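Troubleshooting log. The previous structure file for this entry was overwritten by mistake, so regenerating from the original sequence record. Sequence copied from the archived sheet and checked twice against the printout by T.R.
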Amino acid sequence: MMGTVRQRARRGAGIVLAAALAVACAGGRPYYEARQQPFVSPKGTSLLRRAAALGARTPAHRLILIGDAGVDADANPTLADLGRWSADLPNDTTVAFLGDNLYPRGLGEDDERGEAILLQQLRATPAKKIFVPGNHDWGDPWLDAETLAREERFVDGHTESPAALLPKGGCPGPALETLVTPGAGLERGVQLLAIDLDWWLIDAGERPPCAGIASEDDFVRALGDALRANAGAHVIVVAHHPLRTGGPHGGWGRAFGTGSLVTLAGWLGIAAHDLDGAVYRKMLRRLKPAFASQPPLVYAAGHDHSLQVIEGRDTAGTLVVSGAGNADNVTTVTAIAGTLFAHAHAGFVVLDFYGDADFGDAVAGDRVMLRVIETGRARPVFEMELPLR
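Regenerated output below.
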């Protein structure tokens, strides 16, 4: 896609801005950098104790959330740990890769390096895998649907184990994937809704055609409809871009002056992939009513390279940021309002779904446990039972 003269000019400005942002972010001092010890709020501590009291059980299904793993590495210990956690339930595990599956600019033509990085993730586990696009998969800073299409063809063409990139065709979704049907070990079942907010953050003229989604209004309506249609299930929304985060993409821990550059991007009409960017802020204002109409159990994203568990308030039961899929790519994190857990450490988040029979007690209904797994540590560093809606 060549784009208009105006779009090409904005792309040129985007290159300059991206370089300036990289310089401004380098060496920034965070407000709170949880590298040696994780942050756990007092409320999070009580939840951890409650989770430990439930004891070890075999889940009906396990969902592993890991993002931003697409960095060069001869051997990625985080992916090795993922393989061990998925090996416990090989037929009842799904792994959601939360975008930026291939740095820095997505999959090029005849790109042996890029294919090797994707294969490293595809071969990390024989379990079912869902890949969600991130801005780097689109070819950041030049977001191009054909670059993403190459990754989609490569992932969907993997024959060694089940794998798919969702949503399809550079469209925003929501793409529905049933992980557990109601009654199959779980009373309510589990539905995964994959969305791609990169579609919103590129010029309207650059967006690929999508059936039934001709505008932002169409997407907001489709998202709200999908959430309401699956209200009886445990709904997990997976995306690359977070709704809230205490990392640099949320404006925390960045170097002085970066906020001004994000503002400048808005003046130029460039969609900075930061929550304080003008286009991103507008997008969140439009999306929040859709989530508030029927909040999912969890909204999980990557983008910031840390591990965070945050109260979802009116958008979701719980917000998860799990973008620390590679130890060479971890960034700083700040405990923001509602943070239950935060740590700048490589790892991933596990959701374990249990039915009544798994506990054998008087509490009726399903239960869902969240566990934070840090690379190189045998046991979870944080656990909590999720409040069900």
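DSSP finds eight helices and 15 strands in the chain. Archived copy saved in two places this time.
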